[in-house]
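Researcher: If convenient, please comment on what follows.
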Amino acid sequence: MQKELLNKGEGVYEIDATLEKEAWTAAREKALKKLIKNVQIKGFRKGQAPESMAKNYVDPNKLINEAINIALPSMYDEAIKEFKLVPFTQPDVEVTDLTDEALKVKFTITVYPEVKLGQYKDIHLEYTEPKVSAKEVKESIDKLLADNAELVLSNEPAKLGDTVVLDFKGYIDGKEFEGGSADNYSLVLGSNSFVPGFEEQLVGVSAETKKDVLITFPEQYVKDLAGKPAKFVCMIHEVKTKVVPELNDEFVETLNIANVKTVEDLKKHQKNKLFNEKVRNAESDYLQRLINKICENSEVVIGEKVLEAEAKNTVEKTKQQVEQNGLTFEQYLQILGLTEEKLLETAKENAKHEITSQVVLGKLAEVENLYISKAELDKFYEDTAKLYNMDVAEFKKKYSEQEREIVSSLSNQKIINFLKANNGPLTEEKETKEEPTEKPAETEVKEDAPVKKTRKPRAKKTEEKPAEEAK
């Protein structure tokens, strides 16, 4: 196979590859044998007719497409191996010439971003030791009480924090609009789950009364409703208020927390819980700032094409999520006050940050040989199988298709452990404080694998829900 390499800059290369007659003929013959297996001719079982007869029933375009798809993977693998390229994304493939004598293809390849690793050891960033105040402990216990409050019917006028059960119908210009109605809806006043001004007007209502609520939809809202005045005719069925339990040892017992029996036990437990959460958050924040600093110290060249592809992929996923939630993408952009171009720009900036972190950590793993050995992988299988009371061989078989993800996760944790061991914070001086009785949990950090896997190229053929809006 003949090959020519052209460096287009910014990590993009073009390879013109030519598959000569003998290999191209072999690919077409292989394609023919594959396609005739699906040929049905009267008098023969499917795929059993003689090749000389069956080939006349094969679509020539399908034959060429199949032959190209058979030839492409080996052409691509041979090309990147010869020129020692490490692709970062799937290549663009263009058939530039097609005859009985040869198949000519152009591969446009974006390679793994170039990285010149900077300082990644002995970096010391500011770190404030977490502290838990008496106020925070009280707030956490107050939340526990509120979460365990009982909703009871009230004969008093509704106040903020109460729940009203109501039917409502929305009207614009005297006409009921789609999505502006609901029956027996439970609304917590002050939750800000409805449009601004709606909940406040229900303060003071009583059960079995009617109330007209007048609002104006925000300018940044779905196009059909944005900026328009509306009236909601509301029928209040019930008003419910929260009865918060008293903080005492009896209440503490109902929480069923191990080794927590009294109010004092609960205070200590909540203090330790808050402390552990702060430690995890502080360590995670420190690690992220450390990675950002290492990235700043390093030089990374990322092709524009990579950033554009990643940004487009992110926006496309956002579109799918929005539509699954009942909004159109246009409505979503209107609510946020964004344009698709601005969203793409933001996605591109995020992609640059994420890819930079990814490739810098990948380079660090390469330099420090932080890869997962077979022994380490086997130990993971043994330990995890034991944890789930499974046979090791059975566990391996069950998770064999996820091995790449498992190795990636183990490798990332190995990188994190290396960073922790070789970089320390500048801890602020602090007063002596009571040590927590519970040991802070290990920080769990999950990141994408440093190296992406690219798929083989394949040739192209030659041939908002309305009801939610009102809230």
